[in-house]
Design brief:
Elements: E1 14-23, H1 31-52, E2 57-67, E3 69-78, H2 95-105, E4 119-124, H3 132-141, E5 149-155, H4 161-168, E6 176-178, H5 181-200, H6 208-218
Parallel strand pairs: 1-2, 1-4, 4-5, 5-6
Antiparallel strand pairs: 2-3
Helix pairs in contact: 1-5, 2-3, 5-6
Length: 229
């Protein structure tokens, strides 16, 4: 049976916006940044596959880099056309500026059309060096910021888990930790594909965030001897 085309039927497809905020501060120089670039390139085919399995949803990706300040590395791009351009690392960790930039984008004007809750994936290996509180307040005050599914990936032992937990803002959802390249690839792939399946799933007793929290909690913790960063 052929499914009707939503646009020709008079219905625009639902939009699922992925916004990745990536720490590019000086502490990410070297193996961490190389591993992160590899992980993001490796995640794109999995994202395309997840999107193809949910044809009623149009998946768009945006990438924000932050170090000393924040800037958009990838503007809104349909996942089927996404090609990764490697990031480089230098400067400080202006996470507050990154959250403020996300807040500006998370509006009906910045995300037009029929919107599913957007997904924000925040990746960091350190502690904010600017006003994190002000940035978080702006994010939570933005039209789609509080409604967004917020996921955080902590790279290495120096990542500020308390700050990342506050960004997530869900009592059962903890930051995903990656202490080596293999774990980072797995975390990135999960964070960029699981939400597509979760938000597109039939409505049940659990919300998409609750389903994701349950999946994340069930993931095995990294072995102590596997820790590198």
């Amino acid at each position: 049976m052929t499914l009707p085309n939503l646009e020709t039927a008079g219905l625009s497809p639902r939009q699922l916006n992925f916004l990745l905020a990536v720490d590019c501060s000086g502490s990410m120089t070297g193996d961490k940044m190389a591993s992160l670039n590899y992980a993001l390139r490796a995640a794109i085919p999995a994202m395309r596959e997840a999107a193809a399995d949910n044809p009623e949803t149009r998946v768009t990706v945006q990438v924000l880099r932050f170090s000393t300040g924040a800037a958009w590395h990838v503007e809104a791009t349909p996942v089927e056309r996404l090609e990764w351009q490697d990031l480089t690392a230098d400067g400080e960790t202006h996470m507050g500026a990154a959250l403020a930039a996300l807040a500006e984008r998370l509006t009906p004007e910045g995300l037009p059309g029929r919107q599913l809750p957007p997904v924000i994936v925040l990746v960091s290996d350190g502690q904010p060096t600017d006003d994190f509180e002000a940035g978080l307040a702006r994010l939570m005050a933005s039209p789609y910021g509080r409604k967004a599914i917020r996921i955080a990936i902590a790279i290495g032992a120096d990542a500020d888990l308390d700050v990342l937990t506050r960004f997530i803002g869900h009592p059962d959802f903890r930051p995903l930790q990656a202490h080596n390249a293999e774990a980072l690839v797995n975390r990135i792939k999960w964070a960029t594909t699981a939400p597509v399946k979760s938000v597109s799933a039939p409505v049940t007793g659990a919300t998409p965030v609750q389903r994701l929290a349950q999946e994340a909690a069930a993931a095995p913790a990294p072995a102590a001897d596997a820790m590198v960063w």
